[in-house]
Request: fold
Amino acid sequence: MVPHPILRTLALAALAAVMLDGCSSRHVQPKLVRLPDQGHGELVVLTRSGPTTYYEGAQGPAGMEYDMARDFADYLGLKLKIKVIARDRGLMRALAAGEGNLVAGLAITSARKQEARFGPPYQVIHEELVYRAGTRKPDNARALIGRPIEVVAGSSAATALARLRPTLPHLAWTDTTHMQADELLFLVWQGLLRFTVADSNVVAVNRRYYPALRVAFTVGPPRALAWAFPKKRDTKLYRAAFRFFAQLRRSGQLADLIARYYGVTRFNYVHIHTYLRRVRVALPLYAPLFRSAGARYHIPWRLLAAVSYQESRWDANAESPTGVQGLMMLTNDTCLSVGVTDRLNPRQSIDGGARYLRALLDALPSDIPQPDRTWMALAAYNIGVNHLEDARWLTREQGANPDRWTDVEQRLPLLEDPWWFRKTRYGYAPGYTAVQYVNRIRVYYRILRHLRQTSGATRSLLFQLSEPAI
Reply:
């Protein structure tokens, strides 16, 4: 059995790079390194299909490994070709057979080091034993004896379990050759599989969308992720990879990638299910108004709708304890600045909120690129542009980049700390709340963008999904 295709597609789409136009604002751009021995001008990268590696998202190819491979190909002046290998065991065989120049996204193990040479590590992971909330949590590996466990054959998870055999000779598990780790995690979430072991980065991504997944303990020591290269071929490509990753780190792009694919707030199932229900019931009432305002102020209308859901849950009569009202929850001062006379009028509220967001986007320094510009404007919508500037000042003072959202979002929570906010011009602000605010809007926006790509029948099925039984 494989995961429900609609849920898998939703999860993958929501992991797509969060750029408004589907393009990264920063790529490594050194002098091109041309390698004459690379065949037909192609860099052939072998990898698996999955949320942490490579997949076809709503805006085209996506995945952290894909993004890095694309930039590496640009670095070399070559055309990228991705070749998907269905199973972990097949990756090393394909590399040895000369089917590709490198394998992307492998955990370094002793066995794999016998077959290939590894480039510089770029992420540290470990294997995790995963179970479902509501079932009994195993305290340690000994508690797994006699219990059903399934892992991907030939994976680092299988290797981690094999390392336990000398001390736990009766420990047994099933190696599957027809499913990947994210599919096994889905089965655990559905209550159809009791336990699995998977890489921590894969678990982290899937827990956003399968929130009943729980980690019992780690299995084995930490491992580094790296690219694997053939042992017996020219080392030009191997050496170029070290230079490429060094520059990727220096530029901050590696940190950006990790934050983009692993850093957005995780939502529980009930929250997402409620949102999808509101998309079906409430959004059609206001979608024409969002479209009109989006066209008028040159803002994607689905982004405006996502902001409105975060603000009011698309309730035109919403009112907060502080007195802000309406679909876009505008203050009296904001209403005066954007010409809104009736905050509870849906047309006026949406137009006023869009006009205000446009003003924030335009007010930010011109050096801030997209998509960082949009995320910062959303933070300013929540806590005000002055507090955002305080956070950008703190970012600059700490030697980070005030034009990069991943750097600024780390400093926004400092506006709640007296040690830091007393140094700023405008003082205290709920900075952590602002980070959550932006991240939630990003998730809502991604889902709306994905739903645009699906058929009416698919959307209907997605809206009807119910929580799996324990």
Q: What stands out?
A: The chain has a mean pLDDT of 84. The chain has three domains: 5-122+225-262, 125-223, 269-458. The first strand starts at residue 42 and ends at 47.
